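2024-03-11 09:14:02 DEBUG pipeline.ingest accepted 1 chain
2024-03-11 09:14:02 DEBUG pipeline.ingest length=275
2024-03-11 09:14:03 DEBUG pipeline.predict start
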Amino acid sequence: MSVEPFPDPGSPRALFGAEMRRLREAAQLSQAAVAARLGCTQTQVSRLEAATRTPSKSDAERLDRLFASAGGTHFANLYRRITVRPGGPIWFKGWTDEIEPNALVLRSWDPLLIPGLFQTESYARHIFAQEPQMAPERAEELVEARMRRRRVLDRATPPIVHVLIDAGVLRRKVGDPDVMREQLEYLLSASTIPHVSIQVVDPECLPGMAGPFMIAELPHGQPHTVHADSPVEGQITVAPDYVNSVQRRYEAIRLWAYPERISQRMIEDVKNEWI
């Protein structure tokens, strides 16, 4: 007898199931009631929600019609993320195309680099150029995609952005001193935007050593969504236990953060050291 593998809580298929369950419960519908509307069995609905069955395109289309208040293409977008190959920028489009542009609040922590949303073109180019077996033309594509992310800060109603950066990032050399001065100058400029808060974190903050992450607070009662990085592939999840754990870690890191004014002075001082 074959056994279904336990689903990865951060996989697109698990996100599809979690959203299906959330909207069904919000509408006070039973699995049997949803099954009747989808034209399938209750067992099939249960397996979709548990992420032990891969949804079809027609499943996504029927769910978008059933839960039209969620935007009309919500499940179609989730289905598209299931069908594309995992890993790399195509996978990350789930965050940059669907999560980040719609967020009300974005919270990030980075112990290693300037967060991607606030990187300059030169800084980003040096990072991508150092990737193993990275072709120059591919690096340029990634730089352009990173620069496009900035548009989220310019939209009519931009998200509130809270950024925490380890103090060591300011002195981690990426490129030459000119690149670092330009990057820190841009970071200072961004810190004056009314809806952006940038704080430097004391390097003795041990809770931050687990790695970088972002938390998105979304509209319309959608669950908070987390993106956590790894050397191979990031993870996007709405799994409550995972999200709550990351939120607690964020607050633990924030306790080690310097106030914004002091953080700005620290960034300015280090910028002047890059000569």
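2024-03-11 09:14:41 DEBUG pipeline.report Residues 95-273 form a domain with the Endonuclease; Chain A fold (CATH 3.30.870).
2024-03-11 09:14:41 DEBUG pipeline.predict end
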